[in-house]
Design brief:
By secondary structure, the protein is α/β, with parallel strands linked by helices. The protein contains 10 helices and 10 strands. The protein has a 6-stranded mixed sheet with strand order 6-7-8-3-9-10, sandwiched between helices. A 4-stranded antiparallel sheet has the order 2-1-4-5, covered by helices on one side. Helix 3 crosses helix 4 (115-128) and helix 4 crosses helix 6 (148-160). It is globular, with a radius of gyration of 18 Å. The model has no long low-confidence stretch (mean pLDDT 96). The structure holds adenosine-5'-diphosphate.
Length: 249
Amino acid sequence: MESVFKIENVNLFYGNKQALKNINLDLYKNQVTAFIGPSGCGKSTLLRCLNRMNDLIEGCKVEGSILYENQNISQMNTLELRRKVGMVFQNPNPFPMSIFDNIAYGPRCQGIKKKETLKNIVVESLKKAALYDEVKDRLKESAMGLSGGQQQRLCIARCIAMQPDVILMDEPTSALDPIATLKIEELIHELKKDYTIIIVTHNMQQATRVSDYTAFFMLGEVIECDKTMDLFSQPKNKKTEDYITGRFG
Ligand code: ADP
């Protein structure tokens, strides 16, 4: 299996507080990897390392190396890295502008001006995010009028419009109702044909539904990472077993 990311001996500190401890992990191409574990164990922190969002946090220091397609990300241009490694957050965060403009925003920033090209990008991105049919007659209306689930799919479409290779998702359904959650989970299944997906979830059922691989975190360490089926059916580590059987956390 081809790795997109190779994480090697990563330690991360917020000031004096160590939030990640000696992380070694491979993330595979066109697979969905879920990060699970109790709250505060470093899942989001590691996710944010992958496109260097932690650079924006003062006092945050990262040691070790993270290779993206065999390139050390510390040597990459952050704009280029973040274009290739897009991110979707816990709370849908559309820009206060029309549905069309939300998705055209990134491509426009990259200098694409032709109406026809932009329109194609918007339509294709909305289709890939399974939102097009619901919004095709209201592309000029504000994105703020969409439901929470639609807003989250819009944010996924906005990410897709930048033609990323990887999509990072930080608890993307925790603000959504069960039906909107199911739609996003179905969408993740579709998206993995074209993208590598890393998803942080506090919901173990969600990890079993959407992911191929699961990494279990505890207190800043990756305790175990394996095929999701194997991790949940025959965990190798006692801590993983205790967590997934609900004895702890
Ligand atoms: P999780 O995603 O597993 O809930 P986080 O990665 O958010 O965990 O947090 C890991 C640890 O790092 C926690 O102890 C948290 O308090 C701390 N932390 C997270 N973000 C920051 C920050 N910006 N500044 C200082 N500490 C932080």
